[in-house]
Amino acid sequence: MQKTREELYKQIKDIKTKQDFKREINKIREEYDELLDDNTAALLIVDELGRNKQNIARIADLKPEMECTVLGKITDINKSRNFNRKNGSTGHVINLELKDDTGACGLALWDKDVELVANKTIQIGTKVKVINGYTKNGFNGMELNVGRWSLLEIEPEEATELKKEKSESNIIKGKLVEIEPTRAFFKDNGEFGFVTNMTLEIDGSIKQITVWGEKVKEIQKLKPGDIIEIDNVNTKQNNGKEEIHLNSKGTFKKI
pLDDT at residue 164 above 50? Predict the structure, then answer.
């Protein structure tokens, strides 16, 4: 749960008086047209002072229905889409992929935040910090959302603390055991999509890989027993378990 204003003040009481703290909270709430409550405004102050680092959650530790602060790098961006709300208004959403040194998860930006991608403030490689985001199970696993009470920082100071990735390319090599029947599903835009699972034996262990889109058609030429090498797979964490996905970014070959 999010800390209260009083709990947050304890983290900065050595550098700011309670009167100044309250004054800055009121100023921030005014800047955000009273959309932020006292606790969220206080969190922003503490974070800007660099006293919120210990509260950054690892992506590998995320679970559904959490309120959390997450720091990571954007590694994939999908197309934005519009949708109709129950009250008749039009909403906007865009789905990205956020990665830290422990794993990756989906990141959903809503309405005004979608413009950050449109104007290229956020691009692939941009480091972002989501303060007071919330998590849920999305279609492709764990999803972090920037909601009404969340704050989004672009290229925060802590970004230099992100560990360098071991390799930009994640290669898997193994023997094909099985390809499951193809399944169809509806995408958000109403079009059909295709997905299946294939099982590989890798160094004596069995791994399941979820295959998406055009790659579903491409793998049909493979047969059980084939030794294949898959380049640039997408790994995600879902309830503490690693998922491996082969989508349009990945490639494979029989060796």
Answer: no
